[in-house]
Specification:
Blueprint (H helix, E strand, L loop, with lengths): L22 H16 L1 H6 L2 H9 L7 E2 L5 E2 L10 H16 L13 H15 L9 H5 L1 H24 L4 E11 L5 E11 L4 E8 L4 E3 L2 H4 L10 E2 H12 L3 E4 L2 H8 L8 E3 L4 H6 L10 H8 L13 H14 L1 H10 L5
Parallel strand pairs: 3-8, 5-7, 8-9
Antiparallel strand pairs: 1-2, 3-4, 3-6, 4-5
Helix pairs in contact: 12-13
């Protein structure tokens, strides 16, 4: 056993490989080192606020931007700039910084509206001002332009005249009454008819009085007992009639009796009573101050007989005749009322 010799080498161990692992790991380590040298990994490690700040803030005077996005300080220049040149560069930088569309600094957020207003004013001031000048044809032919203006004014006057000549909201009304109260001496509304300016019927209803009917007065009113079977109650009929009369010129013959039966007072300025129009009496060769009946005026001026027979009057026929009589003297009578307006 003492003769056994061990061949042991106590020298330095063999050098280890620089890169251990398989080929994929080695490639990954190489790429990582390459990215670290280029600076891409440093950019990813930075917080996002810092990266945004680097992009938003302009580079300082001594800094320049690198492709990787980090600011690097270049070596100092050999020649020093003078104070005048440095101040001039600073002023130029300040001027660029004040332009809002070049460097939108966060400090200018408060003055964004003012900057927009200034830009709008500059844009509007740069636009060409439009002036109303005569065209070449108008300068050469001034008489034609004058004639065109005159024809235009004449057409406007004609239009206004047409509007004035058009009939206003006008209706004619006639009512038939029956006798109520003691011995039938109280006149109560039993029928009402309303026609428009052209004589078309707007309303024609039999109306049931609130009191008991004592005398139907059929010889004059034409009302009979069967007409009251399905007649409209007075309150409902009155509200319907007043909706039609409101705000309109109302024409009637001895119309105060109709308003009394309706328990209503229409403004005098909007009332035309054919029994008190002297022009109608003059046309009929009757005294101006006399109160003529509707039947006589219709016979003399319209050559038509109404209220004939024993069946009674027709309120529709009487309303249409009243409107036709008024239209005979409408222009002259309205001019007279315009000069002498009635007092309400």
């Amino acid at each position: 056993m003492s003769t056994l010799l061990l061949n042991l080498d106590f020298g330095e161990p063999p050098p280890k490989k620089a890169l251990e692992g398989n080929s994929k790991h080695q490639n990954f380590v190489k790429k990582r080192r390459f990215l670290e040298q280029k600076g891409f990994l440093t950019k990813k490690k930075q917080p996002p606020s810092r990266v945004a700040r680097l992009h938003s803030d302009p580079p300082k005077k001594e800094e320049t931007a690198k492709v990787g996005g980090t600011w690097r300080v270049p070596p100092l220049p050999k020649k020093k700039k003078t104070a005048a040149s440095s101040s001039g560069s600073e002023q130029s930088l300040d001027k660029k910084a004040t332009v809002p569309w070049l460097t939108p600094a966060p400090s200018q957020k408060g003055h964004s509206t003012a900057a927009k207003v200034d830009l709008l004013g500059e844009f509007q001031s740069a636009l060409p001002k439009i002036k109303t000048h005569l065209t070449c044809s108008q300068k050469k032919h001034p008489q034609k332009t004058a004639s065109q203006n005159s024809t235009q004014a004449h057409s406007e006057n004609n239009c206004s005249g047409v509007v004035q000549e058009m009939p206003r909201k006008m209706v004619a009304v006639d009512c038939e009454m029956v006798g109520t109260g003691p011995k039938g001496h109280v006149s109560s509304l039993a029928r009402c008819s309303i026609v428009n300016y052209n004589g078309d019927v707007l309303y024609d209803e039999y109306i049931l009085p609130p009191c008991h009917i004592v005398d139907y007065r059929t010889r004059w009113s034409g009302i009979r007992k069967q007409h009251m079977v399905n007649a409209t109650p007075f309150k409902i009929a009155r509200s319907q009639i007043l909706k039609i009369l409101m705000g309109k010129i109302v024409v009637g013959h001895a119309i105060h009796n109709d308003f009394k039966a309706l328990q209503y007072f229409h403004p005098k300025s909007l009332t035309r009573d054919t029994s008190h129009i002297p022009l109608l009496n003059r046309k009929a060769d009757c005294p101006e101050n006399a109160t003529m009946s509707l039947k006589r005026l219709t016979q003399k001026l319209l050559n038509r007989d109404i209220q004939v027979g024993k069946s009674g009057h027709s309120s529709v026929e009487d309303a249409q005749a009243t409107m036709e009589l008024y239209k005979l003297v409408e222009v002259e009578w309205e001019q007279h009322l315009a000069q002498n307006p009635p007092e309400d």
